[in-house]
């Protein structure tokens, strides 16, 4: 895996319904044409001059999200979605004349680009399964005439009202994981401090043992020196006693 593809440590996959809650713009649209893109902020591969890898799509909006969308354009509007192609860690690709469900967002330069919520694919093919899924999540509106799409029903509205928001639940899970991670870091920090204290105590005990050994050795040397000095004094005293005795004997012999 490339370095730039490394996901955050706390990354978890999200369902399409959860990601749909966080997407800025959701549209059902048909791809009318594809246009090659030159090097841009979205195209940063070493081979960026191979323009076959990067393109934008001219799309016709068939339906817009009924509420919460940041895109306000009339039905049947045409606009470009840029930032498509093959990138280091992912690819956003579409085929001309096919319809898709798009998660989109507007960047700081007012370009419409794919909104890869949670680092996952934001483009969904027009299948019966995806139609049922998106119709169960929210109501589409502002549809072009003749567009066939699943209808949002009151049963689904009741389901929507009774359902916990995925993003809220996931936020709570992330907060709990963050709390556990913080506690784990504290435990590791305390364990590290405890190990440091153990090492310090171990060194102090070693130093005390060394001091005791040196003290015993010093005491033994002092004792040996004292005994040696005592032996020397005793020898000296004996020598002093012998010398006068010899003088007395020598004087008596002379007389």
Automatic annotation (TrEMBL):
Regions annotated as coiled coil: 173-214
Region of interest (Disordered), ranges: 225-255
Name used for this protein in its record: CCDC3 protein
Domain of life: Eukaryota
Composition bias type Basic and acidic residues, residue spans: 225-239
Organism: Polyodon spathula (North American paddlefish)
The entry's keywords: Coiled coil
InterPro entries to which the protein is assigned, alphabetical: CCDC3 (IPR040311)
Lineage: Eukaryota, Metazoa, Chordata, Craniata, Vertebrata
Signal among keywords: no
């Amino acid at each position: 895996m490339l370095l730039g593809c490394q996901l955050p440590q706390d990354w978890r996959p999200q369902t399409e319904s959860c990601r749909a809650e966080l997407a800025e713009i959701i549209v059902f649209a048909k791809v009318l044409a594809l246009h090659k893109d030159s090097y841009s902020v979205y195209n940063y591969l070493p081979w960026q001059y191979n323009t076959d890898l990067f393109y934008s799509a001219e799309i016709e909006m068939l339906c817009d999200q009924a509420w919460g969308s940041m895109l306000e354009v009339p039905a049947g509007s045409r606009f470009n979605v840029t930032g498509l192609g093959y990138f280091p860690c992912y690819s956003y690709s579409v085929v001309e004349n096919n319809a898709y469900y798009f998660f989109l967002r507007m960047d700081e330069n007012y370009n419409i680009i794919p909104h890869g919520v949670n680092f996952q694919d934001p483009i969904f093919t027009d299948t019966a399964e995806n139609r049922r899924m998106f119709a169960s999540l929210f109501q589409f509106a502002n549809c072009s005439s003749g567009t066939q799409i699943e209808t949002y029903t009151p049963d689904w509205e009741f389901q929507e009202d009774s359902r916990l928001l995925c993003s809220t639940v996931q936020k709570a899970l992330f907060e709990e994981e963050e709390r556990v991670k913080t506690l784990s870091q504290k435990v590791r920090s305390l364990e590290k401090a405890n190990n440091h204290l153990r090492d310090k105590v171990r060194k102090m005990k070693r130093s005390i043992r060394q001091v005791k050994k040196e003290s015993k050795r010093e005491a033994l040397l002092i004792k040996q020196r004292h005994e040696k000095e005592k032996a020397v004094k005793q020898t000296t005293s004996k020598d002093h006693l012998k010398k006068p005795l010899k003088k007395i004997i020598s004087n008596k012999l002379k007389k």
